[in-house]
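Reposting from the mailing list since nobody answered there.

I have sequence plus structure tokens for a pair of proteins and want to know whether others read the tokens the same way I do. The first protein:
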Amino acid sequence: MIRPLKIAHASDIHLCNGEEGMPVRKAFEHVIDAVIETEAELFLIAGDLFDHNRMHDDVIDFVYEQLARIACPTVVIVGNHDCWGDEHAVMQRMDFTRAGHHITLLDAVEGASVTFPELHATVWGRCMLEHSLKNKPMAGTPPRTADLWHIGMAHGLYVDYEETGRSSLITPSEVEASGFDYLALGHVHMHRQMRHGNTLACYPGVCMPYNPRQPGLLTIVHLTPGEGALAAAHMLPRRRPLQKKLAEAA
């Protein structure tokens, strides 16, 4: 019989280099803290872990250090900021085994699945080659093949109206047809949930919002047999005001 499952879902971390990137690093530390504190059994990063592909080695090493702090299975896909087809492609430089064998990067352009028998779950996602009109994040979603939680990951723009001029679109009909119990989305910087058919799709919010008065977010998802998916935004510690930081440093 399928078991309950708790998932932590984050996206759009946008780690970057230098002093500019220090607040983002702290925010990502808070994400990892939350994965540990909530006792999540599966961690999903739905794209844009990095803000761009020209990442310095110290940022990459920082990611390894943080991901090594958790033990639960972790699945990562690329987004439009760290897409696979860029000539500098930071994700092609990554060796996630340096963080541990619990990390899986779904790097197949045509899509791929990973199964976690101990969680009674499979996770599917596509590797974004380029962020363009041709990119279809939900293309090739696989059917459910076993009595396991059927989980998807996609980085793109959900639209519920006729849209022809934007890249990497995700539509209600694609969400419903996927049959996923939960679809972990990335790309939109706010917490938003949509349910089509039996599928709950969700943007998790971001760990470092543009407005420092707003808390950072990730999403905690509960999958319960007979009930499906229930997701809720989880608040992270707020950023300290710059004035307070300066006063403490004086």
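The second protein, same order (residues first, tokens after):
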Amino acid sequence: MDFRLSSEQQALADSVASFCARDYDFEHRRLSLANEGGFSPDNWQLFAELGWLGAGLGEDAGGYGGGAVENAIILEAFGRALVVEPFLACAVLALQTLAALPKCDVRDQLIADIVSGEKLAVLAHNEFEARGDVELVGMTAFQDNGQWRLNGTKQLVLGAPAADWLIVSARAGPDVGLFLVAPSTAGVELVPYRTLDNMRAADIHFAEAPVHAVLALPGAALPAIRLGYAHAMTAMCAEAVGAMDAAILLARDYLKTRQQFGTPLAGFQALQHRMADMLVEAEMSRSIVFQGLASLTDSEPERQKAIAAMKIVVSSAAMFVGRNAVQLHGGIGMTEEHPVGHYYKRLFVIAGLFGGEAFHLSRLASIGTGFW
């Protein structure tokens, strides 16, 4: 496999890195978090103008001809800068799920609106009982005089507080469909909150909430959701690699400047070994993300095996690197003012999001027995 970036991909990487270095330092991030939606609408519009929102989508689906590699490039850079805009939730998870659905006017228009930055849509699929299991859907959909309505609750819907549209999965009979719902619709109640890493999410309660449009009738939804989550997990693991890189560099610089007994901490062999272990974990994660990217075009059993293995390795590495980066900083690493603690919080959330290490170990062990 050729791991070198094409000229277009390298230009994308340079563009995102330039934005993060110039316009997204720790103070800019703090100001973005202070906005009502928890991120900067100006930045989101800039992402659209630069083509980043559609960079990971093929031209036939309404994007700019890229794919999973482009999303990984963007999110690895975002991980280094701790970008808080809901790119993962909207431009990856929601958009890739939509792209995997059969074509229809509503789906095509929604993709166009997301890519242009006019609308922000998120996938409301996760439920409390699922714990990372994409197959588990307890929410129900029923028809009332020809009008589809939804009952149930979705949990930890990333980006929901700022969303214009909710793409909601619900069980209609024995199978699952996908439905488009406006958050302001009667019967929809959002309970917004900040996650540990300062991102915005919401639990959403549906009480006979009317559906705006049907995106996928039962039978076509679950395969699209599976693929959307595979893309999202791969992109999120690339983000973790970027965050680990940044945390390691912060720890390195601190050890080179902080002195103990008249010598820099970087001169102590035990701390050198700790830094080496952190670097090994980050590089192992980078390698297995390459495997995850390559698997996205495989058949489903092989793809799910590779994605589960990737999430196991990256979750473990994220916890190891984040924890040790804070410990190497000593007391200052625990403060809100120092960025290293924020990297740890983001890595901690990534380790558990979409199923933690234990869940995916169980899944990987069960794939050969027909679990998926």
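Reply #1 (J.P.):
I read it the same way you do. The first helix runs from residue 7 to 23.
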